[in-house]
Each structure stands twice: as structure tokens, then as C-alpha cells.
Amino acid sequence: MTTNPTKTVTTAVIGTGNIGRRLAADLVAGGVPVLLAGRDPDNARSLAVSLGDLATAVTVDEAVEKADVIVLAVWLDTAKELLARYGDALAGKILVDPSNPIAPDGNGGFVKTIAAEESSGLLLAALTPAGATLVKAFGTLSAETLSAASRRTPEPAVGFYAADDETAGDVVAALITAAGFDPILIGGLDQSIRIEVFGDLHEFGALGKAANRTEALAAFAPLTAADRFEIYEQLARHQRYIDNDASRASADKYVGLYWPDATFTVHDLRTQTFSGPEGLKSLYDYAHSVFPLEQWFHDVGWFEIDGGGDTAVVSWRWLVHWKEGNQGVVSTGTYQDRFERRAGAWKVIDRISDVDPNWPAALFQPYLDRQDELFVSS
User: Fold this and answer.
1) What percent helix, strand, coil does the chain show, rounded to 5?
2) Please, which pLDDT band fits residue 226 given cuts at 50, 70 and 90?
3) What is the DSSP letter of 190?
4) How wide is the angle at C-alpha 121 spanned by C-alphas 118 and 124, nearest 5°?
């Protein structure tokens, strides 16, 4: 069992302004004990009292001394001052930077306080003392959205982060999860500008909202034409392989279209879920034993492929053509798929099949009536 890093490290939030307060509340709601420190000790004490037993007010000195992870929920210039002031005392610490270098522009909006091509994450990385590790996180969403989107259902909002150190990144990812968000690593700290204000993955940038994983991945790493073609080939192979013979070799070929931990839920005459290689093989064997596949063939109708990164969501139409008696298309339905790319290959991890109400019961019923007699395992 993997140890939850939030249970083995001490986390401090320095800064009790809008971001610090909201983030501390999200972490406490996720069961994370938090040390709270700020320029005004009374604010830290008041916030700790409002958050309950998991929150403890401390001085900034105590936060630096006691914490393993320190979230610098302060303005960029203040973060620079803290790095300079504590220097070697930060060795061994994971520092989290949620800063966004902006100021009012005088016209009701905001402007960056550093050059357009500069990143506060990289500026702070250059100032991080030896032995300390910086991770960029918790700054992609506004303070209001940090509260409103935390633990959103049914699909959680994403929390992007950037890290050069994998171990530190994993610790911060666990905190992002505890705060009620779905963590996505965008790369090293050289990508920080993408998750800072006006960046393409920021709420106040091209992304424009608190996104779910599918939306976020589509923006972060959209599917290429090659990805889409490979996924479509998988749809075509599914229809072709299901029409193969009932041999074990053919069943193995069909099962090979799915990841070993995949599930396939079928809603037709009854609802069943088939899981893993053996479950999918039993589905293949059932279809080939009970139904007269020599009298029909499967085809692909329309399809839509969305997603990004290593995940794709696919909606597509399946068609069953009955060859005997010139029946033509006798049954239709839809698949709702989730594909994952692993080691460079796309396969199904979750599939749901819904048959349309045009199911030709009269054609199939004679075979269903004999299913116990007809079924043979390959």
C-alpha cells in the first residue's frame, strides 16, 4: 500500500490573505493538519480557530522550523524576502509557490508586474536556497474558485502543478488531492508561466475556468491527428475482431484491444459488466456461441473523439447488418468509451454499450432461448 504523503509530512501555509485562507480551509477539509503563519499573528490565530482542531497558528519562524512543506501564499516580493531571510533554514523543505505577479491596471483589470515573458515560478526557483525544492501549485485558480470548485462532483476540478523534483511533486500532488482537486503535472518549473495568470492553463488565461481532467488535458496536450487515427483504428478493429471466429486466438485478439484492468458494461436485453481479460473473453465467447454471427457483421457509424494528454473520450455508433434475407441494418446503438495511452499505445479502459430500442427481438429470441445449450467456451 502506498503511503499518503500528507500523513507523513508537516504542512504550513505562510500568508493568511485570500489564497492562504481558502487553501488552508480546503486542506483542513481534506484531513490535513496545517500550521498557519502570517505577518499579522492575530489573523493567523483567528483563522486557526475558525478552521478547528487541524489548524494551528504559529509564527513564521516556527512554520519554517517545523514544517516539511511550506506554501508561500504571499505576494512575489514577500516570497523573495522570505527566501532571502531564512536561507539555509529552508534546506530539506518543499516550498510551494502559488504566486501570480499582478497588480491593478487602473482600468478595472490587472497587469503583470514582471515582464510578459517572465515567470514568478522561475524567478523564485533561481532564489531557492540550496537543499530546498520549489514546486509551482495552487495558483491556477482564483481564491473564490479555490473554495467553490474544491471537491466538485461528479468530476473534480483540476489542480495543475509544475515540479523539477519527482518526489517533491508527488508530495504536492497529494496535497492537491486532499484540497479537493485532481492533480495534473504539466512538466518542470520551466513550464510555470503556463499556470500563472494569463497563461494558457490559468483560470484567467486561455483556459478560462476550473476545468475537469478531460477539458484540462485537451488544453494542456491536445490529441494529435496521429492519436485520433490510432483511436479510430481501434474502433474499426473492435468491429472486425468481434466478427472473427470463436477460437481462443480470435478471443485473445479481441481482448487485446483492452487494458488488463478494463471494464465493459453492456445495456441491451440485460445489464452486465465484464471486467478484465477473463470477463471480456467470456463476453466474446457468449456472443459467438449464442448469436449467429455468420449471418451478420458489425460496422462503425459516426464517431467523436475528444480529450488530451494520455486520455481520450470517444462516443461512437455501432451497426449490425443482417446478411440473411437481405435484412440490412437490423440493430444500432452507441458506445461511450474512455481510452488511455500507456507506453505509447491507445487501448480501452472503460466502455459502455447502449442498444437502441430497435433491437430485433424476433430475430434473436430463438437463439437466446437456447443460450444454455449453445454456449461454448473457446
Assistant:
1) 40, 30, 30
2) very high
3) G
4) 100
Cell of 123: 524567478
Alpha-carbon gap, residue 269 to 266, rounded angstroms? 9
DSSP string, 70-120: EEE-S-HHHHHHHHHHHGGGGTTPEEEE----EEE-SSSSEEESS-TT--H
Helix (H) or strand (E) holding 340: strand 328-342
Give Cβ neighbours of residue 70 (< 8 Å, ≥ 6 apart): 11, 12, 14, 63, 64, 90, 93, 94, 95, 96
Say if residues 347 and 230 touch (Cβ distance below 8 Å): no
Q: Quick one: cell of 116?
A: 510578459
Q: What is the pLDDT of residues 150-206, one digit of tens each?
A: 999 999 999 999 999 999 999 999 999 999 999 999 999 999 999 999 999 999 999
Where do we find the cell 429470441? 365
- The amino acid sitting at 292 is P
Q: How confident is the model at residue 358 (pLDDT cuts 50, 70, 90)?
A: confident
Q: How far apart are the first and last CA of the chain?
A: 36
Q: What angle separates helix 76-86 from helix 120-127, to the nearest 10 degrees? A: 10
CA atoms of 293 and 374, how far apart (whole Å):
13
Residue 360, classed as helix, strand or coil, is coil
Under 8 Å CB-to-CB from 275, ≥6 apart: which residues? 262, 263, 264
Spatial distance between the Cα atoms of 331 and 158, rounded to a whole number of angstroms: 39
H helix or E strand, kind and range, residue 125? helix 120-127
Cell numbers representing residue 14 in the block:
505562510
Pairing of the two strands 55-57 and 34-37:
parallel
